Amino acid sequence: MNATEQLAAWIQESSRIVFFGGAGTSTESGIPDFRSAAGLYQTEQHSPYPPEELLSRHFFDQHADIFYDFYRGKMLHPDAEPNGCHRLLARLEQEGKLQAVITQNIDGLHQKAGSSNVFELHGSVHRNACMDCKQFYTLHEIIQSQDTVPHCTTCGGVIKPDVVLYEEELDQTTLYRSIDALSSADLLLVGGTSLTVYPAAQLITYFQGKHTVLLNATPTAYDSRADLLITEPIGEVMNNVDQLLG
């Protein structure tokens, strides 16, 4: 039995699956990750500001124009489509086998594929709000805005994406719901993440179930604790699993 067949077998015998994913989940959908050789942090090294600073709360507050120039140019991918990973997870949720998707991604592709029980640790580009009056704005409205920094049409306040920037805390309700799902899961699938971003990466320590499967192109500090390691592209692997499940 090869690794893909083993994964399919464990999925078949499980009823409380949780998926914990990072940026690598969406690279096959055309969205760059952050820390790989071709990732955002590597390709932006020659910018006057490192990405970690550009994506910090203090930078947003002080230089919203530069932030939005980077954000619109590098982090918004409205035409991206779900890949095999997103689609299989949506199927497993519909079949009652998947409890939750816990994602560090902000792209909304899990929901686009059909998943509904998605815990977005770092927020979503699809939710935006005026910092003053809290008026909601869609991603489409942000993209269509003619202003470098989009402003509220009601009160004129600055609109901020509902994404967690450096120096901001994660939403506590999302954290607690993630911990609850992990604590009761019988199979944990970890995909497309370097497991280096805290406190998000620490969440998987709450899993006490039967099997942990790690699907990641590069080694992580968690490899020795996984029951199965798969390094092939996650979308391709999940497509193959989908076919094996019939």
Automatic annotation (TrEMBL):
Keyword Cell membrane: no
Reactions catalysed according to its record: N(6)-acetyl-L-lysyl-[protein] + NAD(+) + H2O = 2''-O-acetyl-ADP-D-ribose + nicotinamide + L-lysyl-[protein]
Binding site for NAD(+): A23, T27, F34, R35, Q104, I106, D107, H122, T193, S194, N216, A217, I234
A Pfam family recorded for this sequence: SIR2
Keywords, in A-Z order: Cytoplasm, Hydrolase, Metal-binding, NAD, Transferase, Zinc
InterPro entries, per database record: DHS-like_NAD/FAD-binding_dom, NAD-dep_sirtuin_deacylases, Sirtuin, Sirtuin_cat_small_dom_sf, Sirtuin_class_U, Ssirtuin_cat_dom
Top-level taxon of origin: Bacteria
EC number: 2.3.1.286
Gene3D superfamilies reported in the protein's UniProt record: SIR2/SIRT2 'Small Domain, TPP-binding domain
GO molecular function: hydrolase activity
Cofactor binding: number and manner: Binds 1 zinc ion per subunit.
Cofactors: Zn(2+)
Positions with a binding annotation for nicotinamide: F34, I106, D107
Active site (record annotation): H122
PROSITE patterns noted in UniProt: SIRTUIN
Location of the protein in the cell: Cytoplasm
SUPFAM superfamilies noted in UniProt: DHS-like NAD/FAD-binding domain
Main localization, broad class: cytoplasm
Domain Deacetylase sirtuin-type intervals: 1-246
Function: NAD-dependent protein deacetylase which modulates the activities of several enzymes which are inactive in their acetylated form.
Family: Belongs to the sirtuin family. Class U subfamily.
Official protein name in the record: NAD-dependent protein deacetylase
Organism: Paenibacillus xylanexedens
